[in-house]
Amino acid sequence: MSEGPVIIGVTGGSGSGKTSVCREIFKQFQGKSIMMLEHDSYYKDQSHMSFEERLETNYDHPLAFDTDLLIEQLKQLMAGEAVDIPVYDYTNHTRSEEVIHQEPKEVIILEGIMILENQRLRDLMDIKIFVDTDDDLRIIRRIQRDMTERGRSLDSIIDQYLGVVKKMHEQFIEPTKKYADVIIPEGAHNTVAIDLMVSKIRMILNAH
């Protein structure tokens, strides 16, 4: 284990429950030196493209992310330096002018669908978690989320899932399961796995 912060990577397909897993872990360390970092914050700036071109972006592909910037900022946090995390504007499909100032912490929970796909990013992690959830359950969760939170129609969600999301999952996300130290079935509902991870993080923090 490194002398710097402990970096825990949490990944899984869209709708797997990885965000819920991160929140459950985070909740156990309220008041401690812990932070969450989302790969989604690092979608590439598309301000040089027309709005129509931006709509064609495949957000389920590794090339949609500015992973170089994420790695650079993670290294700064590891060195004890504060960073300005980009904020993505999902309405205009590009990076906003806003940033979130983040001071370094002892534990960094890094979350995203593609975080195990990049070796340089993988190599920075102390613990790698894959949240493994049945495809049927993931699509149902995605439908519920996109209809409720994003006002999308059922047809558009299904078209996007079958046209892009499913293929990208099979090509880029599912294969990264082999890099995981821990596989958590059924996400945040798996309280035994969450408790084990929390105990492990406590041990690491106490050892620092």
From TrEMBL:
**Subcellular location, record wording:** Cytoplasm
**Which EC numbers does the record give?**
2.7.1.48
List keywords of the entry alphabetically.
ATP-binding, Cytoplasm, Kinase, Nucleotide-binding, Transferase
Positions of ATP binding: 12-19
**Domain Phosphoribulokinase/uridine kinase, first and last residues per copy:** 7-192
Q: List, alphabetically, the InterPro entries matched.
A: P-loop_NTPase, PRK/URK, Uridine_kinase, Uridine_kinase-like
One GO biological process term: CTP salvage
Q: In which pathway does it act?
A: Pyrimidine metabolism; UMP biosynthesis via salvage pathway; UMP from uridine: step 1/1; Pyrimidine metabolism; CTP biosynthesis via salvage pathway; CTP from cytidine: step 1/3
Presence of keyword Cytoplasm: yes
> What broad class describes the main subcellular location of this protein?
cytoplasm
**Would you tell me the Gene Ontology cellular component terms?**
cytoplasm
Look at the named UniProt entry and state the broad enzyme category this protein falls under. Answer: transferase
Report the family membership: Belongs to the uridine kinase family.
For this entry, the protein name equals: Uridine kinase
Provide the taxonomic classification.
Bacteria, Bacillati, Bacillota, Bacilli, Lactobacillales
Query: Gene symbol?
Result: udk
